[in-house]
Task: inverse folding
């Protein structure tokens, strides 16, 4: 592979990354307002317990309510550890370190409450974004015709993405949507794989992150639909291209509500799929890790020994992370394909012409 | 120990049975098609992955309902 075969996109290479980032950040902030107090993975309690730790609670109140909860009891017996958990088990991240080192500080007490542990996810998402933008921007500045090893790898990835997306959307639209979809893929795969690093965590194991990403796709799909087809075209598409009185009635009564519901089901299912896969994977790793610790339940809790039973599932998690990023991108591509003008589907049309 | 908690793994298991059957058919057919036309493997694989994502989403929904269910 040589560099002159690759067309490096010339205008605004990082614009779509920034777009994804901005929308993700906004979406996470908006959505987290609701679910930070709702406490996403089912915690013991419910409305009553949630009312006690409302958002308006002061730091002093948090400290007091935390103090009688756990704090100075010392470690529980090894076989009773799981009873202390109010949320599904997960691998330790940097926030656990912070809580462990300074459990009595304001930040420590805030993070020690299981609901608030979720605020580190947007921070991790931002961290991943900064790292990605910095590395890729740096490499973009230093690109050369004789690619270094890293540039070769990036070019390989870009060419693979180009082939994949152009294969679905056709050459013309594929190049037009490659920046957005490629940025989506690279961002999601990095977010997913970040959870496998020591003290890392997948920001995508939180539904607000995945919902924000899905809202990005939703906006792009709707913008494409209304700009390419026009308002009338979109309405006629939703009505099923009615011709006579019967199809008009069927279109208005049945097809229009179905299509409108479907437009909102698409991002919902995108978000839920990614969240469920990554969260399930994290819970699996955490459960296996805890099993490896509790296998030595005859030892006292102070002995730091455990079997790395979660190790085989790390490889499974690598596979799942990659495939889910690919699936998110491919489904976004297909949702865009579904709203593009029908005669311009690229290869299908060309093939039809070739066969005719 | 609430007996209701036993229903969560059973629900996921039932969903997984259906998804497993569907995935088996989808992937089997895709492999067969690749064997007949190895040059079209890229397109077949893309379609298979999208279909597999739709199929396994059903199990994921069951899994999420377990995570979100009141304990």
Result:
């Amino acid at each position: 592979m040589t560099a002159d075969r690759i067309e490096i996109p010339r205008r605004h290479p990082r614009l779509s990354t920034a777009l994804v980032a901005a929308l993700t950040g906004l979406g996470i902030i908006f959505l987290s307002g609701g679910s930070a107090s709702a406490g996403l993975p089912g915690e013991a309690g419910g409305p009553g317990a949630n009312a006690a730790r409302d958002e308006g609670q002061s730091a002093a109140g948090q400290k007091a309510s935390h103090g009688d909860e756990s704090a100075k009891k010392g470690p529980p017996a090894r076989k009773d550890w799981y009873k202390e958990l109010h949320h599904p088990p997960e691998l330790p991240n940097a926030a656990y370190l912070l809580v462990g080192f300074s459990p009595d500080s304001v930040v420590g007490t805030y993070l020690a409450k299981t609901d608030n542990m979720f605020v580190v996810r947007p921070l991790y998402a931002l961290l991943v974004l900064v790292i990605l933008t910095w590395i890729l921007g740096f490499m973009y500045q230093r690109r050369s015709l004789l690619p270094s090893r890293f540039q070769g790898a990036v070019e390989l990835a870009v060419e693979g993405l180009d082939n994949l997306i152009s294969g679905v959307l056709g050459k013309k639209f594929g190049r037009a949507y490659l920046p957005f979809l490629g940025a989506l893929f690279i961002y999601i795969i990095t977010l997913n794989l970040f959870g496998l690093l020591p003290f890392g965590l997948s920001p995508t194991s939180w539904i607000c992150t995945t919902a924000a990403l899905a809202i990005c796709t939703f906006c792009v799909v709707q913008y494409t639909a209304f700009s390419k087809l026009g308002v009338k075209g979109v309405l006629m598409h939703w009505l099923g291209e009615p011709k006579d009185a019967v199809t008009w009635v069927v279109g208005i009564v049945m097809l229009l509500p179905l299509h409108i519901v479907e437009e909102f089901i698409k991002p919902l299912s995108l978000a839920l799929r990614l969240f469920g896969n990554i969260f399930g994977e994290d819970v699996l790793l955490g459960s296996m890790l805890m099993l490896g610790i509790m296998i030595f339940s005859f030892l006292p809790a102070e002995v730091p020994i455990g079997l790395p039973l979660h190790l085989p599932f790390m490889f499974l998690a690598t596979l799942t992370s990659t495939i889910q990023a690919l699936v998110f991108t491919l489904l976004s591509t297909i949702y865009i394909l579904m709203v593009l003008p029908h005669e311009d589907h690229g290869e299908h049309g060309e093939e039809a012409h070739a066969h005719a | 120990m609430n007996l209701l908690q036993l229903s969560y793994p059973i629900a996921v298991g039932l969903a997984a049975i259906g998804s497993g059957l569907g995935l088996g058919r989808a992937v089997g057919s895709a492999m067969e098609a690749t064997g007949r036309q190895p040059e079209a493997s890229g397109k077949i694989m893309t379609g298979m992955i999208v279909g597999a994502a739709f199929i396994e989403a059903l199990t994921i929904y069951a899994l999420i309902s377990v995570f979100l269910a009141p304990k």
About this structure: Chain A has a mean pLDDT of 74. Residues 245-294 of chain A form the longest helix (50 residues). The two ends of chain A are 36 Å apart (CA to CA). The CA atoms of residues 51 and 304 of chain A lie 38 Å apart.
